[in-house]
Amino acid sequence: MTWINGQLKASLPVSDRGLAYGDGIFETIACINQKLHLWSRHWQRLQQGAKQLDLELPEQQTLLNWIERALTEKNNLPEAVVKIIITRGSGGRGYKSPEQPQPRTIITVHPWPEHNDNDYQQGISAMVCQTCLAPQPSLAGIKHLNRLEQVLAAQELSARNGREGLMLECAPADNDKPAKKIVIEGVSSNLFFVSRGQLFTPEITYSGVNGTIRSELLERAQALGIPLTPGRYELQDVLNADEVFFTNSIFGILPVSRIIYQQGQKSRHYQQRDVSMQLAKSLNPELQRPCQFNNL
Questions:
Q1: How crowded is the C-beta side of 193, counted as CA atoms within 13 Å?
Q2: Which of 75, 221, 239, 245 could form a disulfide with 276 if both were Cys (CB 3.0 to 4.6 A apart)?
Q3: What domains, with CATH codes, occur in the chain?
Q4: Are strands 124-128 and 7-9 parallel, antiparallel or unpaired?
């Protein structure tokens, strides 16, 4: 049974455009102590996604009421993951939208995932994925339902027992010069790196997702006096960095101990955790995640 438009239902019509075309948006939200973490940022991104796709959203309070029903049905778990999927609803064959679409909101509640404390203390190993992100400014930033690039990248991780991967933006070669390897994000996370005390993160202009934790850190870094510069960065910039970390709405800030690149032939190790730990102390406890990292 799944909550669809505020009602428990056992099935979803096969005519739903989310299934047929990925025509919709979604959010994955941490629920801590029965409160939605950074709800205002998730709602803001839902609004942005709806605007870019010309998709109608339910009223904010209506959506919150539906989420509350779903959580209550799960006996108000103190910690959980709430997933919201909003599709354009059902439609016939063909890409053209129905003249009077009836959007469908699907809400599911999932157990809170545990993470190994050692991952936070020592950092995780990441790999550079061969699957790249296609630039599409009309979809950049939002969490739309077309996630096949991430599915393929996740298959790469599974095949090599990887924890997380870096995804690069597809860039054509220019005048017989090698294509630039522009780094955008992780498979299911955003990316930050530190060089000489300066914090950097890839800008989300042509591809990628503007994560809620990413948006939050842009403000918190400023409040903590940490200089931060979004921009277009190449893989080599990340490999030359002093420290690297991933962020998402469920695991918070997670440091990287090494990045494996050039099809697994070489790796770059990172020993510093200074800036990432400073930020983690500000954010990770809100998600009940460790914030004490070790310099190696």
A1: 28
A2: 245
A3: 2-111 (3.30.470.10), 117-287 (3.20.10.10)
A4: unpaired
